[in-house]
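This section describes the prediction task in plain terms. A model, or a person checking by hand, is given the sequence of a single protein chain and must write out its three-dimensional structure as a string of tokens. No templates, partner chains or ligands are provided. The sample shown here is typical of the held-out split.
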Amino acid sequence: MLAPAPYPGSVYLAEAPKITDWMQAWGSIASLIISTGALVFTGLLLRHEIRIRREEETAASANQARLVFTRITETSSDGRYLQIGWEVVNFSSEPVMDVRVRASKTGRRGTAFSQWTKADEIVKVRREGSCLIPYPGYPSDFGVALEVHFVDANGLEWSRTNRERPVRRFVWVTPADDEDLLLPDIGRNPLARLVIRLIHILRAAKVRRRWRKRGMEVKIASPRFW
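The expected answer:
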């Protein structure tokens, strides 16, 4: 029986990888790295543009809120009760609605007071009011902070303390408020948590749109297991 003839050396040389094969492989890896980097950069750029646009929209939405101020017109005390007179001034061309004012402060001795007062349903230009608070002290013993809550002409809720910048007020929505936010108990499975997180993001967008149609801006409470 004849033994099989050995392969000639030229066959082994033909099967060995050539320098062009290595160059092609490294070129493919480099292309993959560059493509991945470009994709990440595009995503970061898009996220930055979305954040800038959102900040611009927030700044534009605060145009009217920046023109609503409060000021203290008088303070007096008989040692037992504190009389605070205040004024809400609306310098914008549109009225603000559902206006409430809160006077609050902590005294030197740690005694605090806080009281809400309904200013008016609609304040077009100016509204004055006052509140009487049981407080054992005199005007020299404290400084009063005025906080005003109101709804602007676009239906957005705002709060402003003294001359600080206005702050948007949101309604927190939990699963108890909207059944679309109810999620199953998934335990500690990482993959299941990732799937539930994606489902929560999609449902949260739907919930925001629904509540926005009711005239309310909301923030979605995240599940506890996050």
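For orientation: The first strand starts at residue 68 and ends at 77.
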